[in-house]
Every structure is written in structure tokens, then in C-alpha cells.
Specification:
It is found in: Cell inner membrane. This is ABC transporter ATP-binding protein. One of its GO terms (molecular function) is ABC-type oligopeptide transporter activity. The protein has 617 residues and is of the alpha/beta class. It has a 6-stranded mixed β-sheet with strand order 6-7-8-3-9-10, sandwiched between helices. β9 and β10 form a beta hairpin. α2 packs antiparallel against α12. It is elongated, with a radius of gyration of 35 Å.
Amino acid sequence: MQSPELHPESSPWKAADSRPPDSRPLDPRPPDPEQPRQLRRIVRLFRPYRGRLALVGLLVGAASLVSVATPFLLKEILDTAIPQGRTGLLGLLALGMIAGAVLSSVFGVLQTLISTTVGQRVMHDLRTAVYSRLQSMSLAFYTRTRTGEVQSRIANDIGGMQATVTTTATSLVSNLTSVVATVIAMLALDWRLTAVSLLLLPLFVWISRRVGRERRRIATQRQKQMAAMAATVTESLSVSGILLGRTMGRSDSLTRSFATESERLIDLEVRSNMAGRWRMSVIGIVMAAMPAVIYWAAGVALHLGGPAISLGTLVAFVSLQQGLFRPTVSLLSTGVQIQTSLALFQRIFEYLDLPVDITEPDHPRRLTAPRGEIRFKDVEFRYDAAGAPVLAGIDLTVPAGGSLAVVGATGSGKSTLSHLVPRLYDVTAGSVTLDGVDVRDLDFDSLARAIGVVSQETYLFHASVAENLRFAKPDATDEELYTAARAAQIHDHIAALPEGYDTVVGERGHRFSGGEKQRLAIARTILRDPAVLVLDEATSALDTRTEHAVQQALDSLAASRTTITIAHRLSTVRSADEIVVLDAGRIVERGTHASLMAVDGRYAALVHRDAQLEPAG
């Protein structure tokens, strides 16, 4: 699986370079053949709200009819009421014009309210759909995708579509209705002047289409650059990023790198705003000059012996013409906005179309009371279908309540093996079963309830201790929190804090030490009470004293549970029911600690190595 832009060229850890922004002119390209399909997908986003949109259409139509009627009232005032001195008729016509203005305003406010509400609901649907799709992606997707890129798609891309989604649809319907109604009214007044007015319209449409395609290409480049900047900010301005930048003396370099990215964005923003600006200005100038052309055409027609055009008709026609050009220009601008927004929609649809590797079966099985027996049956796993296997020929059985330790050199496949149990990855061949049921046949909720994972990389939210613990069990009582924390040997430390369980842990838990964070993670897992426990090098990054305290908490957690331990320090796994040694993804030794030491093979060599390193540690 490969998604677009998952490897942006820019990185906050690269030295700032002096490459100039890409300022090459954008050559015209033929229309995108995918555009009609993309437009149909956009239209489908509005389908759930078609009732409200129909109401908007009625309001738009009513507003258009009212606006078209006003010039006819003006014509009657100039041609009948004033010349004939009919003050009563003049008053009625004037009141009609005022009433038209009031009704237009009321209709406009109502249609804006409804259309904005619909637009925001569509934005909500898009954000939720993208977030849901990203939640369902496998771990492999996130190992090759920068966090800032993901955030940019949700924030910048969807946010950039806001104006288009909330106002463009209404603007399109409103302006199109106004144009049609106005052209009909103009034809009713004088077809010859109408022909003169519409003479240049095809040219305007052609110009706007060229401008729209140009802005769309620039918008694609701009969003890519914004994603790169978002990734830079997310990585370099996190707590870990700041620590790394400061300790490595790279703060100035990171600032220069960010400034370079920002310079590229300046160029793209300027090009985006100036794209087609002169051509659209020419359209504006021509439209502003059209009333003069109409007056000239009416005078020439009269001079050549044509029928006279009344003053009221001429003024009403020019008023309609101005009313025509405003929605026409707006329609052209809307077309340009749509072209620009298509680039954003395309980026969002790319994420919505990402294939999901790990899916729930159509008819999943549910385990209500799992015992915890884990079985690996001739398991093979590859990260890439064309690559070499990371695991091969794995046959293991961990009985319910039993313990398995997996050891081996770095890169031997230990963590990958542990990731197969909770279905962070799916096996390429063979199967992993829980109580005899293939984990791929289980519903996600059952699997998550049955298997708890404590890894070396502890993640805590920027929230209180209680909120972090309740992430495992939202309805947990305070007493349950205290019990879990006592079992993890962290309760006394939390209780001694000024704010106790309401203490905010800070981003990624940086207000707590490594051992304290691990014990919080253990307490969180205890609260969930899983039948199977996967410990993925949970103590490898801790000092000996802290490891001892954490190991006691782990022993409490592992009691009466099926436990799979991925170990770096072998002192933590000597009591395991079975120990397997992995090398290049294959099991090369298996047995108890005593039997493997007696063989004096790979495992014994690892134990001797640990014994030599322990004094230095």
C-alpha cells in the first residue's frame, strides 16, 4: 500500500538549503479525465441534505424573481407614472421596489443560514470520514507517514474547502437562477440589446476556465507545501523535538529550514492569488463599459431608423444588464473557486480511498469470556509482498495462563511477532488463534478486550492521570483507579502529588519519569483486565532499580494471565514456562531457562553477554 505524499522531501532534520522556490510557469494542460467522477463524488456528499438544499433553491428562485421584477417597476415609473403624473401609481410602484428589497434581504439571510449549516455538516462528515479511515489503517501506514502530513490533511485541506463547501453551492444556484431569469427579462424588453450584451460571454467563460485550471494546479502545490510545513512544526516543536534540537545544537538550523519552507509557501501563495488576475480584470473592465455600449447601440439604432426605445425601457435594460453581469462574474469566479477546491477534494479523497489492510470480517465472531490460549500455526509475515519474510515457520502454543518469552538479537523479529497477536499486522501465511479462533475472524472489540499490550514506548495523553487511566475503561470508579495504581506500585506517588489523580501528565507524559510512565501504562492495562498480556520490551529502557519496581508491577499484572514477553534483558524471563530464541525470523532454540542453559547455545550466549554488560549498566 502506498499513498501519495507519504514521504515529503522536506524534513525538519535536514539542513536548510538554498534551493529557490519553483517559479516555473504552469503550462496549460488538458482537462483532468477524473474530474467528472470527482464532481459526482462531491455532489454525493450533499445528498443527505437534499431536502434543505431544495428549500435553499426555492428561496433562491424567489429572490431572483423579486430582483428581476424591480427593473420592470422602474420602467413603469419612468414611462408611465412620472410622465402621466399618476402619484398613486408612483407610490405603489415605489412601495413595490422597497418591498422587493426587503424580501430579497430576508430570502438572502435565510438561504445563507441554511446553506452554511449544510456546508458545515458536510465538513463534519468529511472530517469524521477521514479520521475514521485513518483509525482503521494498519500500523504499517503510520510507520511510513509523517504525523504532520496526516494533521495537514484534516486541518488544512478540509479547512481550505470550508468557503467552497459552505457558500459555493448556494452561490452557484443563486447566480445561475439570476442569470437565467435576467436573460429572459432582457429578451422581453429588447432582444437586440440582449444580443449585444451577450456577445462577449463565451470569451469570458473561456478565460475563467483557463484561470480555474491554473489555480487548481497551484493549489495542489500549495497544499503539499503546507503539509510539509505542518510536518516540520509537529516534529520539531514537540517536547521530544525540542529536546533533540536543543541537545544537538540544531535549533538555528531548524529555524533556517522552517524559514526556507515558509519562503516557498510565500511564492505559491502569491502565484495563487495572482493567477489570472489580469485576465479577470479585463472581464471586469469590459462589463463596466457595457452600459455605455448599450446606450451607444440604442442611439445608433435610432439614428439608422430603427424603432425608438423608451427611456424607461433603456434604464430598465441597463439595470438588468448590470444585474446580469454581477451574477455572471460571480459564476465565473465560482468556477475558478471550484477548480481550486478540486485540488483539495482530490487530496481528501486520496485518504478516503486508501486501502485498509486490516478489516473486520463480514460476520465476526465474539469471545465473551476468553481463556487466553494463543497459538501460532506455521506463521509467516512480510512487510512487503515482494520482500523477504520477517518471520517464517513460527509454530508456538501458549496455554491459557501460561507464559512465553521471546528473545533474540535486534532485528530478529521479536516485536513483529508480538504485533501479530493484537492484529496490529496480519500474518502473510498461517494463522494466529485465540482460544482456537483465528484473530482475523474476531470482532475488533473482543480482540481489544482480550489482549493488553505494554510496550517500551509508553504513550500518555496531555491530560490528567485519571483521564489517562480511564482511557482503558471510561466508566471506571475512583476506587478502581486506586486499586489498579496500587497493583502497578504507582498509587503512593500519584497521591503525593499536589493535585493527585488530577495532575496533568504533560505532552507524552514528560512530567513523569520513564519508570513512572511505565507503571501508569501498567495500571491502565490492569484496569482493562485482559486475558492475554503482551509485554514488548517493557523494561528495556529503564535502569536496574526502576526496572525492579516496574517488574514487580508487571508480575502483579501477569498473574493468572497468558503472558507473551518480548525481552531484551534476559533476567526478566528466567521463570517463563517456555523461552524461544529467534534469529532472522525463525525459531532456533526453545525450552526452559535451565534446559537452554544446559544446551549452551544461542540463549546461553545471550545470557553470558547480559552478565558481562550488567556491571557496566
